[in-house]
Amino acid sequence: MVLNTPRQLRMIEQAMKDRAPGMYQELKESGMLQRVLEDHNEAMVEAFLEEADALASVVMNKQYSSHTEYEQALTLAGNTAWERAMATWLEFEDTEEQKLAYINGSPEIQRRLERAYQKWMDGVDPEHREEFQEFWDCEQKQTELNWILEELSRDDC
C-alpha cells in the first residue's frame, strides 16, 4: 500500500475539480471522493515507481565520467518519471451526464447560461427567434453542450 500524502491528494483533487467538476461533485455528494482520491493516488504512485525503475535501469547501464554526472542522470530519470505519471494520472473528464448535472446544479452557471442564451438570441433574426427558442428548449440541447461550455469559458459572457 502506497502512502497518500496530503499534498498529492490535494493535487489530484484540484485536478479533478478543475477538469471534471461534475465527477468531483458527484463523488463528493456520494461520499466516495476520499476513497477515489486515495485509489487514484496509489495508481499514480505505482505508475511512477514502475517508470522510475525502468528509467533508472537505463541510467545504471550507462558509463558516466563522474559520480556527480551519474547522480544527475538518476535525478533526471526520477523527475521524468514523476512528470509522466502526473501527465497521465491528473487527466480527468466528465461524462456528458456529469457535465449536464453540474451545469443544472450550479446557480452561477445558470446565470451565465442565461446571459449566453440572451447574447445568442440577440444575434438571431427576429423572424427565426421562435424556431431558435424551440431549439434551445429542446431535449437535444445536450448536443450543443460543447458550444455552451466554450461560451461559458469566455470572460465576455
Explain what this protein looks like in three dimensions.
The protein is mainly alpha-helical and 157 residues long. The protein has two domains: 6-89, no CATH class; 106-153, no CATH class. The chain contains eight helices and no strands. It has helices spanning 6-19, 21-30, 33-60, 67-89, 96-105, 107-122, 129-137, 145-153. Helix 1 crosses helix 3 (33-60) and helix 3 (33-60) packs antiparallel against helix 4 (67-89). The radius of gyration is 23 Å and the shape is elongated. The mean pLDDT is 81.
Please describe the structure with a list of short key phrases separated by commas or semicolons.
157 residues, 8 helices, mainly alpha, 2 domains, single chain
Short description:
By secondary structure, the protein is mainly α.
